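Weekly puzzle thread! Below is a chain. First person to post its structure in token form gets bragging rights.
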Amino acid sequence: MMTAPDICPCGSGKSFSACCQPLLAGDLSADSATELMRSRYTAYVVRDVSYILRTWHPSTRPARIDPHTIPAWNGLEIIGPETIDETGRATVEFKARASASSVRMLLLHENSRFVRENGHWLYVDGDVRESVDKATNKPGRNSPCPCGSGRKFKKCCGP
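Winning reply:
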């Protein structure tokens, strides 16, 4: 696992210790599917594979995840409010950005499904609406960061 960030990677604007860290540590359980989505995104950012697997429904959970294959996620956008159907299953739509190297940017747009069992939300699966993996020219140091943060590349995802 990587070093804990100061600001939570999930985009809430809160400090990591006041946002997703208690969930990743197992101190709390997510109150909503959206909160679980945000904490799972954060777990991917910090490469907390045990949390990712622990919050994945057993019916669809992979046997293992190699943390070295996780791209460098650097932006999460939740699209609208979560929806809950008549069976109590929730759906959260999101877009996430990552850089797989200094010249590849990834965009994942997904509708993720969650279920609440024994008082805990679990990720089940998702429908990918868009997945883009494209080679780009490396931005200049003073160019806007391609991750969508609004900051300069040198102050964000740059070397």
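Puzzle host: Confirmed. Bonus trivia for everyone else. The mean pLDDT is 84.
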